[in-house]
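W.,

You were right to be curious about this one. When I first looked at the sequence I had no strong expectations either way, so I just let the prediction run and decided to look at it fresh. Below is the sequence, 941 residues in total, followed by the output.
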Amino acid sequence: MNKPTPSAPASREAQLLDIIRALALELHPHRQGNLRVGMESQLDAELGFDSLSRVELLLRLEQAFGVALPEHVMATADTPLDLLRALESARPSGHGPVRHARDTAALAAVEAAPDQAATLMDVLDWHVNAHAERPHITLLGEDGGPQVMTYGDLFADAQRTAAGLLERDLRPGQPVAIMLPSCLEYFHSFMGVLMAGGIPVPIYPPARPSQIEDHLRRHAGILDNARAAILITVPEAKIAARLLRMQVLSLQHIVTPDELRPEGAALPRHAGQGSDIGHLQYTSGSTGNPKGVVLTHDNLLANIRAMGRGLQADSTDVFVSWLPLYHDMGLIGAWLGSMYFSVPLFLMSPLTFLARPERWLWAIHEHRGTLSGGPNFAYELCLKRLSDEQLAGLDLSSWRVAFNGAEPVIPGTLRRFTERFAKYGLRHDAMKPVYGLAECSVGLAFPPLGRDPLVDRISRDALNHAGRAELAAADDPHALEFVACGQPLPGHEVRVVNEAGLELGEREEGRLQFKGPSATSGYYRNATDTKALLHGEWLDSGDMAYIAGGDVFLTGRRKDIIIRAGRNIYPHELEDAIGELEGVRKGCVAVFGSTDPRTGTERLVALAETRERDPERLEALRMRVEGLAVDLLGTPLDDVVLAPPHTVPKTSSGKIRRASSRLLYEQGATRGGTRAVWLQVVRLWLAGLAPQTRRLWRVVADTAYGVYVWALLLVIALPTWLLVVLLPGAATRFTVVRGAGRLLLKLARIRLTVQGLEHLPRERPCVLAVNHSSYTDGLMIVAGLPGLWSFVAKRELVGSFISRWFLRRLSTEFVERFDKQRGVEDARRVGASLQAGRSLVFFPEGTFRRHPGLLPFHMGAFQAAVEGGAPIVPVVLRGTRSMLRDGQWLPRRVHVRMELAPPLQPEDNGWNAAVALRDGVRAEMLRRLGEPDLADQPVLL
């Protein structure tokens, strides 16, 4: 056994062990009295230090010994002895903060973007042709100067890598695994795989060299599922990686980036298509059921373009990132997004950020970063670790988008980070909670630019008991807070459904589903999980959420993934392994995450049943559980609870109830005697029975209500149609329709509230401009407003005999939407009707869609008002979208509100007057509607 060096004072060794022991007990208080710390103790397997707790340990050591430890110590140190040696060779800490000069050199703006590119290779080709010498990536290392890669460098190195892969007989469509840290070789390896016709498969590298063999063994499942033909990795891993060939039959070559760059090689180029797989993003663990998300070039480019549009990204931006490249947010969001929009990317390793989080903020200062971000724990780490002295002189005024995603966003973190760093120039509206998932490439919902973070404060009882996100009273001490993660990216949609798959209304909690051009087609070679993911054209996110005002509010996860420091951990893998240990009751283990408010990340907890009672045997079993977690996942547990039999809650079919286990743990009920635990479990089961019964009843009641409304409609519609067709006089026919509509609303128990009737002109014709949300909007206008109205409808409705006769008898004006010549004639005819004294109802959006948001306006309503010299009244309908939205066929009972704004009078004649009228109406609608403005969609004329 190695001994400490003779020159090391005994007091230094004792002080080191005291610091380690104190922190270990803070992390694992249950080990008080039986924690043994020696110079050879393993920091992870025996003492339970993960990456974040290692950061805290290094900080305490630096403060205690007055030194500055190299960043790599966090990754390479395995024992206290390693730390002692690092302390002996460390340089003394500085006497003040490092001053960072600003990099004032700015690159020339690039006016265009590769919008016609079909593949990622096409994107790189475009840049090489446009500006091969433009800096693309600057790698910020711990020591030495920055390393710069231009677009031309990337292209040339990627071609040589592709040649090396083809020399090793890589065939088109074969996956190639890339297990590299953040380095310039990563980028040309990824692009080289694509150029050679392969499929890149990023997997995360080992945290420490001593863990390479265990790390590779844990990833054998991913490599086997992907059928990887080649593994590109670091030189240190090559020997251990050869052992994988016995487990991964497809693996033919294990190479380093340098070995894949033959000099003078031919310059290959695979002719790819947009439908080809761009890369496989593995989201689950390695020993269970690996899930590789299939992402095509079409998916990736659609997501990059949509995110860029949402962020208004262009070449004048600067992206500063420490995000790992094996993670979709770092790979797609930071790198590929920067490449597409000609944005210079300044990159540091995740290890640099964890060890020195201030370097992230100073890099934003120095390079005038405009785009940057990370998971919630990154912001918490800055709040906890950084002193005002370290931040003296910092300027974050250039940082316009600070995105927070990849793990639950904590409202308190947003507030505290914004408040603290406001004095360093951080704008309040820079903080952007975002939502995404690998199954949608990376991004799904972004908040609008210029808006401060939106936090919803809702009633805990209403959400837990009725599944409704009702706003809480101001003095409610038990209110829940949820952060708005924004609205779907352009071209994408989301919805919330109940357990029966029926879409829910505004502020109702359910399963979040999505669709769009960025969405995956499924998991690679995994038909079972693909089937569970796809629900027709919709994909299941696995998250619980509600929608309010067009924003997505996440409330929890249906899937049991634990997100810890930005990494996904799948509990079933560890549960199965712990259940095989002698002394643990098989099938009676729950692994779950419990949010730690101090760090903003989730604690990893294992609750296991055992019949052991002897303290020494229990401690030995606990150590085996902790060692197994490190061996299997590469990260230690935060807490291990060994409880008596019948502690772990299960469903009636025997499945582990992880959410209930977490609640027991947080209530402290897992550490009591058997009788107390039994009582707690029974009470917990009874407490959960009523909400589950209520939610089941809601599903049944909602379905029955929808069927009932359809039956009412059929009974009322037939005689109404006949009367309208047969009765003389427009006023009489309109009276029949209004009476039928009010009867339907009354019998369906749908409340319609109308405000602002005093704004309706009485003595002259006018134009109503109404937002369009649902098939029921016309019914609400007829039932809610007095007078005689003529609707302006699309000409396609003339094609149906039933609708043609009915609408014509109600003096409906039909207009052409696609034939421009006929559309002009229709517009003149509608204007003449207005001049003749008929009031008109327009839906200027022309159509509606299922997701909240005010679509762009057609100009017909405003031209008609100008030509007829008539006032136009903005009318806002709220609630009809939830009642019966696009694609939904079972109506829901809601409260519909109609509000009439003061009329706007055309100020002049001609096109400019119509445009001014349109803008005024739109502003009035948005002010009252509470939905996002989708005016950036293509303009409709």
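Here's what jumped out at me. The first helix runs from residue 10 to 27. And, maybe more interesting for your project: DSSP finds 29 helices and 36 strands in the chain.

Coffee later to discuss?

I.
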